[in-house]
Amino acid sequence: MVELRTPRLLLRRARMDDLADVHAVMSDPEVMRYWSTAPHREIDQTERWLRSMVDADPAGSDDFLIERGGRVIGKLGCWQLPEIGFQLARDQWGQGLASEAMAVFIARRRSIGASSRLTADVDPRNLASLELLRRHGFVETGRVAGTWQIGDELCDSVYLALDL
Ligand SMILES: CC(C)(COP(=O)(O)OP(=O)(O)OC[C@H]1O[C@@H](n2cnc3c(N)ncnc32)[C@H](O)[C@@H]1OP(=O)(O)O)[C@@H](O)C(=O)NCCC(=O)NCCS
């Protein structure tokens, strides 16, 4: 079982008994403001999402839940390589935790040496995510308007990449 440790965090594979913690994060409209889906209203939606993470083929996926003090507070990694995705519970923002998780994940990808690139697709209004990615060396590779229809809103994408 792959586990990554940082001073404050444990990154580990998802389990179905993480459902309540993951739903608490994914049902929060503030966390989900720039996500590729609307906030999860029903726990069944989070259950399907978590199931897809648990069942992901390890050959094409390298995804982690983030645990702090025994509580799952978010996720970071590639559900489908090479695209990275991440989110943290609202009460955990602004403490450098995403940066800590990002650093250990990038170090892992570098040490594996299997994939030469990580990519990201971020809403241009999502400044925290753009800053996090740029801080870790991701550079912008393009912008496209109208890529995501989320509820009533048509959203744009900034594409970024990190060569490992
Ligand atoms: C993106 C997210 C994970 C960042 O988590 P975090 O733990 O608060 O981030 P960190 O504290 O590690 O900060 C990382 C960098 O971003 C900067 N940052 C954080 N919040 C910011 C904000 N609102 N505006 C601008 N910069 C911000 C920090 O200053 C830091 O940069 P620095 O190292 O140069 O000081 C969190 O905001 C989140 O969960 N957002 C919602 C989910 C989401 O949109 N995911 C991405 C979908 S593509």
Automatic annotation (TrEMBL):
One family name in Pfam for this protein: Acetyltransf_3
Residues of the N-acetyltransferase domain: 9-164
One GO MF term: acyltransferase activity, transferring groups other than amino-acyl groups
Where does this protein have coiled-coil stretches?
none
Q: Where are the transmembrane segments?
A: none
The alphabetized UniProt keywords are: Transferase
- Listed name of the protein: GNAT family N-acetyltransferase
- The scientific name of the source species is Sphingomonas xanthus
